[in-house]
Amino acid sequence: MTQIRAAITGVDAYVPEYRLTNHELSTMVETSDEWIMQRIGIKERRILKEKGKATSDMAAEAVKKLLSKTGTSPGDIDLLITATITPDMMFPSTANLIAYKTGVENAWSYDMLAACSGFLYGLQTGAVFIETGRYKKIIIVGADMMSSIVNYTDRTTCPLFGDGAGAVLLEATTEDVGVIDHDLHSDGSGGKFLYMKAGGSLNPATRETVDNMEHYVYQEGQTVFKFAVSRMADVSVEMMNKHNITPEDLTYLVPHQANMRIIEAVARRMGITRDKVMINIQKYGNTTAATLPLCLWEWENKLHKGDKLILTTFGGGFTWGAIYLKWAYDPK
Questions:
Q1: What is the per-residue burial (b if ≥16 Cβ within 10 Å, else e) of 76-107?
Q2: Which one of the listed residues 22, 96, 182, 256 is annotated catalytic?
Q3: Residue 182 is a catalytic residue
Q4: Residues 231/258, Cβ–Cβ less than 8 Å
Q5: Vertex 115 angle, CA 63 and 306, to 5°
Q6: Interatomic CA distance for residues 144 and 132, integer angstroms
Q7: Structure confidence by residue, pLDDT tens digits, 68-127
Q8: Whose CA is closest to 264, among 300, 233, 296?
Q9: Do residues 156 and 113 touch, judged by C-beta distance below 8 A?
Q10: Per-residue pLDDT tens for 172-230?
């Protein structure tokens, strides 16, 4: 029986025009360009400033561009999955809003909340749907407006995050390309180290939660750093060993863009050189669920059919994992 795999057949993205530089950030909170670059590796991040705009608007632009680039009719999409922790609202689903705004009217759609690992979780979920043979075209979106939940008086978190959206088209293939394997994990005991305290059913929004600034990202940086390095490196090295991939064989590592030191540490554990690592954290910061598709978007013209990629990420929850895939097409 011929094996059906899910292949990425197109990628596109959207980032807001406004650039929040380290210099401007230093006028808002006690920090500096030198401090941020040495500890995180971020030079600037994009911020969605337009009034009345939200995560679905960025994602809709990415999806429109993706449909146009791939010559895909919106009506041909079977399913749209959106990974985000900054939905426009608790309900309706942001994915539903994106589908409406892009004319994807024949698909069903839903949101996936796995923090920075959301896109990876969504990619594997979409791959499974494709592998059943019942679904032909699926869009996976990673989008976050992190500026909406960042406290710009907290220098431990505000330099980290930016806004953006990326989307990929998944289609069925019987060729030796596409999603080959996955290794995904979660551990709820890590929730206390990276979370947003208020806004859910445990601590609904009140005047007190707002006054106490509990609707912003909180993290214990050192703990998250240690877990991120070990978990991302472990699953990536295991994936290489399982599929007999040497550092020379691997075309690119596509890591979550959380911190330059984390990225460098993971690459060292894998034994790969910097030229084999997709890095754009300096331009966009940590866009949470959008970091991986933003990397694929920027490197698309450098990728060739059959290239071996390992995508890896770590996020709040804790959530983490790796996907091994072979790129499905040559530069357009």
A1: ebbbbbbbbbbbbeeeebbbbbbbeebebeeb
A2: 256
A3: no
A4: no
A5: 55
A6: 29
A7: 999 999 999 999 999 999 999 999 999 999 999 999 999 999 999 999 999 999 999 999
A8: 233
A9: no
A10: 999 999 999 999 999 999 999 999 999 999 999 999 999 999 999 999 888 999 999 99
**In the chain, ranges of CATH 3.40.47.10 domains:** 5-177, 180-326
Identified catalytic residue from 96, 116, 259, 295: 116
In CATH, what number does 5-177 get? 3.40.47.10
Q: Which of 22, 96, 259, 286 is catalytic?
A: 286
Cβ-defined contacts of 30-38 (< 8 Å, 24+): 30/155, 31/155, 31/159, 36/159
Say how many residues make up the chain: 332
Topology, domain 180-326: Peroxisomal Thiolase; Chain A, domain 1 (3.40.47)
Residue 151: active-site member = no
Name the pTM for this structure. 0.96
